[in-house]
C-alpha cells in the first residue's frame, strides 16, 4: 500500500524526528514552508531598486520572489491593481501603492496592524502612517516619500545672471528670456519649462501645486468643501495655460515624469517640475546636465507660499494572497531602515523613517534632502483621505478639466466653475 505524505510523516521513526528538531534548532532547516511571493513594483524612473531589494529578501529568508513589472504612469498602475484586486486575483501578493490610494484600495488590503507594533510605527513620519491608515486599519507601510521640486540649470542662470525664481511670474520671465537667447545662439531645441501635463495623476499633483500655491485652497478641503471656483484658482490656471507652446513644448500635454526628465536631462530645458528621484539620475555619469543643475522649492503666486504636493510609495499586501506571512515579511523588509538607507544612497529616494534624516552618510549623498526636508514638512496632500473611494473619480475630473484648459479647449474660469460643480455633485453622492 502506498502511503500519502501525511501517513509518511506520522510514521516517521522517532530518531528521525529528533534529528529534524535538532537541525531546526540549529537553524539549518526551517519548519515554515518556503513560499513564492509575487511583488508588483517598478516601471517608473525610480532606478528600479525594488526588484533588487526583493531578491535580497528572498535570498535571506529562503523564499522566492516573482517581480511583476507595472506600467510607468500612476493612473495606469492603479487601473492594473484595481483590475487584479476586483477579481480577487492571486497573481500579486505585495504591491507598491501610491500615497493617494489607501482610501481607494483599503477593502482589498490586509491590515498590517498586528504585524507592526505601535512602537515600530513611531519610527515613520506620523503623517505617512496616518495616510496609510483607513478606518483604523494600517493598510500599507511607507517606503519613500516625495514632494514636487523645481529643478533648474544653474549654468544658464549664471550665464544670464538670473536668480532662482521665487514666483511663477519670475519663472515664466526667466524661462522665456533664456529660451530665446539660447535659441538665438543655436540651441534650437531649448525650452523654458517642462512638467507633467498629460491627463493623469501627475497633472492633478501639478494643478494642486499651482492652485494652492496661488493661495487658492486645496481643491477639496479637509472638511469636504470644494473650492475650485475662485479668482486665485483661475489666475493659477491662466498662468499655467500661458506656458503651452511658449515656454513649454506642446508635447508637454502628453508628458509624465519620465518624458519631462528626458528633455531636461538631455539639456533642453531651463526649468523642470519633478520629484526628487530625478536628482541622482541627472547627476550620473553620462547625463548631459551633470554638475549643472540645482533644486529649489517650487515657485508660488503673488503674496502666497510655495506649495508642493505630497507624493510617495508604500507597500501593501493583498487580502487574496495565499502566502500572507511571507508577503507581510517582504513588505516589512522593503520598508526596513536597511533597505530605505540603501535606496536613499543608491537612488536618492527620501526615506520615510525619521532617523535616516540624521544619518550623516545619507544626508551627504542627497543634497536634495536639505531642500526637501522643509518642503516635505509643508507638503499638501491630495484630497484622497476626504474623498475616500471616490478619489479616482475626483482626480480624473481634475486632470481632465485642467488638461482641457492647458490644451486651449476651455477657458480657465468656465472650466473651474464646471469642475467645481462636478465635484460638488460627486460629493453629494459619495463623501
Ligand atoms: C510620484 C509620486 C506619487 C504621484 C505620482 C504622480 O510617483 O510619488 O505620489 O501620484 O508621482 O505621477
TrEMBL record:
SUPFAM superfamilies reported for this sequence: Periplasmic binding protein-like II (SSF53850)
Q: Does the keyword Transferase apply?
A: no
Its keywords, alphabetically, are: Signal, Transport
Question: Could you say which residues form the signal peptide?
Answer: 1-34
| Tree of life domain | Bacteria
For this protein, the record's Pfam families field holds: SBP_bac_1 (PF01547)
**What are its GO cellular component terms?**
periplasmic space
Q: Which InterPro entries match?
A: Bact_solute-bd_prot1, SBP
Compartments in which it is found: Periplasm
Coiled coil ranges (UniProt) are none
State the family it belongs to.
Belongs to the bacterial solute-binding protein 1 family.
In its UniProt entry, what is this protein called?
ABC transporter substrate-binding protein
- Please tell me the species this chain comes from: Salinicola endophyticus
